Amino acid sequence: MASITLSGVTKVFGNSRVLNTTNLEVADGEFLTLVGPSGCGKSTTLRIIAGLENQTTVNVMIAGKKVNDLRPSRRNLAMVFQSYALYPHLTVRQNLEIPLKLRDLSFAERIPLIWSCVPGAREKVDKIGKVVNEIAATLKIEHLLDRKPGQLSGGQRQRVALGRAMVRKPAAFLMDEPLSNLDAGLRVHMRAELAGLHRSLKTTFIYVTHDQAEALTMSDRMAVMIDGDILQVGAPNDVYNDPKNIRVAEFVGSPKINILPGRTDPSGVLSCLNVNLSRRLRESVAGDVSIGLRPEHLSLQKKNAENCFLGRLTYKENLGSDVFLYVTINDEAHQVIARATPFEGHDVAIGDDVRLYLVPDKIIVFSADGNRLQLV
Amino acid sequence: MTNSRTHIAFVAPAIILMLVILIFPVFVAATLSFTDYSLGNKTFNWVSWENYEALLKRSSYKKMFSASLTYVFIVVPFSVVLGLGSALLLSSLRFGSEIYKTIFFLPVMATLLAMAIAWEFTVDPIIGVANATLKSGCEVKWFYSLMTGSWRGGEPLDSWYGLGCVEGMPNWLGDRKLALGTISFIGVWQAFGFNMVLYLAGLTAVPRELYNAAQMDGADTAWKRFRLVTWPMLGPSHVFVVTITSIRSFQVFDTVEALTQGGPSKATYVMVYAMFEKGIKQNLVGIGSAITIVFLAFVLILTLTQVYFVNRRVHYS
Lengths: 376, 317
Ligand SMILES: Nc1ncnc2c1ncn2[C@@H]1O[C@H](COP(=O)(O)OP(=O)(O)OP(=O)(O)O)[C@@H](O)[C@H]1O
Ligand SMILES: [Mg+2]
Prior knowledge:
heterodimer; A: alpha+beta; Rossmann fold; CATH 2.40.50.140; 2 domains; 6-stranded mixed β-sheet; 32% strand; B: mainly alpha; MetI-like fold; 72% helix; flat; binds adenosine-5'-triphosphate; binds magnesium ion
């Protein structure tokens, strides 16, 4: 168990800057998700922590110790790769044994046949066998121990890869999109299992994903990374409800947050399109702003009321428990997505004129350069 | 499918071609190998196994098998190890690897016959560069003591190099004991570039994440990663490289024809050269066919071994 701290990490490949100065603190035993769109530098960050990538300028601390010049294997971390990276020529049992053998056995003790002549080797090998059996039992893969990775399903390989990471009882687990090769059902199942594993192991997890749903469901805290910058770190709820930047707001949440143009009049009162929101900014700046509205904060309204958009329904997305309504408003200049219950969704048909009520309390306002503006 | 005959029409061209250009000639050779037919004669006699008995009994054919096998057993290991070594080195180079690849691959592309002439001049006992270089080394003290072993107290004249300095350097192609070694050396020089390219292709197929996983698992030296990842992942390449090199070594002909004509005293009398000499130069088609059939049997065994290994052992998925 260990805390992990990155301070001032930069990474440059050739002449393209992949990571801007990055600071990140992961507490002992925490489940931190690093989330962001493809190519933003998540894997690079993880590989720098693991020591697989040389940092261009950096300080990486694990459990309070600087590990900048330590080899990956000496950092006592374990990594689960997206492609699982199991050794295809070895059986599952051998795959699980490898980290322990490389750590605990001397050169002579690893040679087939010779090892049994080395005094003390048998006890070590027996101990390794016992650890492997325990891990296999935890992950319920005992019946697969004699198979080769090629004979396993995706989910089973995933478990073996987890097992290989667990055998060394590392200080922290690093996971690089470990679920992205699984089908949707299994992915949801494995999410729950990983979260359970974290609870029982009480070890630090750093989990990389581009899937914001995974980040929201699994983690204690999530760090949103976009274009080589960590824009916001916080509990999933805080990041979702209180995004500090328009890019964070747009990345987190599915369907995407609606962004509409807004204005503040000279007295500081906000309006969005033609709707007067009767709210003020804390520091009043007259001019254009962007107004973010989550789909669940727009609802269908039967009768005319204040704070309503008039629009036309262009598409209905039925997810069973929810229906998402795609509505063009303001003479079809903007499209917004609103959430409705299946019952409400049933009532309207594509092409209907609809009225959307927006909850003024829930609006999130951003300045023209994308930073968050607080309301009074 | 069961009623229609269309599928036969579809595969017929391939099968007919195979019969005409592969199976039929082999069949003819097999038949001729039981006769004493010689080109130009109107008739022939059936001699049953006589030709094959000759192959087993006569000393010149014993020398033939021994020359061919020795050649194979020298060229295969050396060119495979050199090919793998250079592929590993080249794949770890950041720049310049293209130039080395081209240089190492040149001997493969060049006509061996033309190259053989260059080699003939190089190893010529009188005007050759090889011996001239060795000779000039006699004057250089440290080189002389290194080569003769006198640096560890050996008597210089007991070593071949010390003797060479006094009595003249070896005749690489003319000496019965050295000729096959020299021919094999040229074979290794020619073959390893090809193996290197095959291994380079194999190396690009090894997933990079496996090396990262190995590093995380504690394989912190290059050797440990080689043992854990590279060597086993190259399994299919090993089988292919060894088989191809063995078959190509069995087929060696042009260097022998150009440099030694099978001599001196049949030291380099390899199978394909024997085939050529008997069947074409001396028109003894019967014995020539028998050698051909034995040769094909060797190649067949090698190929079947490869198929067996490829199917059983080295494909992991
Ligand atoms: N070895 C490399 N050389 C040059 N550029 C690289 C290298 N590795 C990664 N990059 C670049 O660095 C950027 C970040 O890559 P990284 O792999 O960290 O992305 P990621 O956030 O993990 O994306 P994904 O979700 O697709 O895995 C990318 O733009 C990529 O092109
Ligand atoms: Mg990645």
